Amino acid sequence: MYFDNAATSYPKPDCVPEQMVHYIKNIGASPGRGTYAAALEGDQLLYDTRKAICRLLHISRASNVVFTANSTEAINLAVKGILQPEDCVATTAIEHNAVWRPLKKMEQSHRVHIRTIGVSSDGTLDLAEAKRVLSQGCRLAVFIHGSNVIGNILPVQELTDLAHQYGALVLLDASQTAGAIPMDLTEIGADFVAFTGHKGLMGPTGTGGLYIKDGCVLDTLKEGGTGSMSVSPYSPEDPPDRYEVGTVNIIGIAGLYASVKYISEIGVDKICKQEQQLIKRLMVSLQDVENITLYGPGEKEERLGLLSLNIKDMTPYDAAKILDQKYGMMARAGLHCSPQAHRAIGTIQTGTLRISTGWFNTEAEIDQLAQALMEIAKERV
Ligand SMILES: Cc1ncc(COP(=O)(O)O)c(C=O)c1O
After folding, report:
1. 62: which DSSP letter?
2. 196 lines ligand 1 (CB under 6 A)
3. pTM (two decimals)
4. Which of 9, 10, 70, 71 to mutate to test the pocket of ligand 1 (most atoms within 8 A of CB)?
């Protein structure tokens, strides 16, 4: 049984490998490079995938979507394409290393000043604290949309408005939320949004992207062939070609196209509701169990379909090992690439065991998992 969907979703819908195999066997061509029919089919698939993402995330134009290898690359593109030497950047105290490390690198290489918005011990972000930090002025504010450790969802609309009010551009890290919770990027109004293809979007690894709002221009992270404006020695000015250099991962994008279509047919609302109900069912089963500590928002509050917990006197690694070896259940242990979030909730020494649900999990599986965790915890009494 698989409960590690926050790392990557599994299984993928059948249409994902089918579409990938179809492309590699029957089309094969590199998009944007040829004028023969198969290459044009590749072009069309790229465009259709951008459009499908636009419809899902409420983005107005296909050219606002730039494909990247994952959200880490998208975040690097935005952070390094905006920040100048001595700039200030604001961010939260619960960011993933995909944000934290590029910022720390920019601190070293460009003397960028990082201002951190603190959170309470359960991971809640207070807008008054955000205002205190943002009002000091910064070029960029980076916010995680949903925490991969705590499971809380940040008030990104309010945070974006606040950051704009004080003159900052906004980058959202939607790695855990794209495809997992309903999202209207036009309404939120962030300038840049990084997403990954292999988590909530149910696509293959090696896919992801950056939404870039109309009028926002980034310095390039990489330069190279785009199949367009080839006579110029410089990168094209216009997105997406400006940022998509080299041959794109068209096989991965074929899979992403299929998964985004699959999600759109079901509806993000429905997927979100199911994943949240499953995690709440688990929380209700575990909340009064002796020796088990649950982290993050309570069972009545909104959260992603993920739950961090610990069993007394047991490392999360040992708990994950027992789950795997004795019960055939897969869950992730440790810091989940987010030491900052663990510092915030007081689990930096131990890390946590993280259970994360996906569209293909069932109530019966959750009940078996709860039973297994209760048995493991009972042995510690
Ligand atoms: C909140 C958050 N940001 C960024 C990432 C990085 O995603 P990727 O590895 O797909 O680049 C993750 C993945 O775990 C994440 O949970």
Report:
1. G
2. yes
3. 0.97
4. 71
Domains of the chain: 15-266 (3.40.640.10), 268-378 (3.90.1150.10)
Dist CA 15 CA 202 (whole Å): 11
Determine the 3-state secondary structure of 245 from DSSP. coil
Tell me the DSSP string of 91-114.
EETT--HHHHHHHHHHHHHH-PEE
Answer whether 148 contacts ligand 1 (Cβ < 6 A): yes
CB distance 96 to ligand 1 below 6 Å = yes
Q: Is the CB of 72 under 6 A from ligand 1?
A: yes
pLDDT, tens digit, 9 for 90 and up, residues 264-287: 999 999 999 999 999 999 999 999
Two tokens at 172? Answer: 């959202």
Q: In one letter, which amino acid is 378?
A: K
For residues 45 and 70, give the distance between their C-alpha atoms in angstroms, rounded to a whole number: 19
Max CA separation in the chain (angstroms):
72
Give the percent of the chain with pLDDT over 70: 99
Task: Supply the residue whose CA is at minimum distance from atom 14 of ligand 1.
Answer: 7
Name the strands in the sheet holding 306-311, side by side, starting at the edge strand that comes first in the sequence: 292-294, 306-311, 352-356, 332-334
Q: Angle, nearest 10°, between helix axes 250-266 and 268-286?
A: 80
